[in-house]
Write the structure tokens for this entry.
Amino acid sequence: MRMVDIIEKKRDGKVLTKEEIDFFIEGYTNGDIPDYQASSFAMATFFQDMNEEERANLTMAMVSSGDVIDLSEIEGIKVDKHSTGGVGDTTTLVLAPLVAALDIPVAKMSGRGLGHTGGTIDKLESVEGFHVEISESEFVELVNKDKIAVIGQTGNLTPADKKIICIT
């Protein structure tokens, strides 16, 4: 399998197989596929989109690219939200507590050092006594007890996601 063929297939509006998506994510994560090819793939996908099955396969491939946190011990239907952060970072810092106040468990994972604004984790850690480097079991316990917890992304948690965000 060659990455250039996968890029051309998506550029031409064709549906990618699970194997082709897995090949891309595994190859890009381990460094076999260069940034310029991943960027070309992202651009082709932007213009041609993906169907529901492709999106699901891409999501699962990214999830499986590193460590996985088991959230099955969190009671009820749990939610997370994703945003790009930004100067005010108002989405996580405002929305997550509002949702938790509705008794909906918010299991939030946030990133670090997103450009000049810093990530959500960087902002939260500027509060004295606030720490996000907690164990998986403590994270689950906090969400069950308080309906909200924020944890920092570890080095090997969805490394494909981190790499793709950097090129898009």
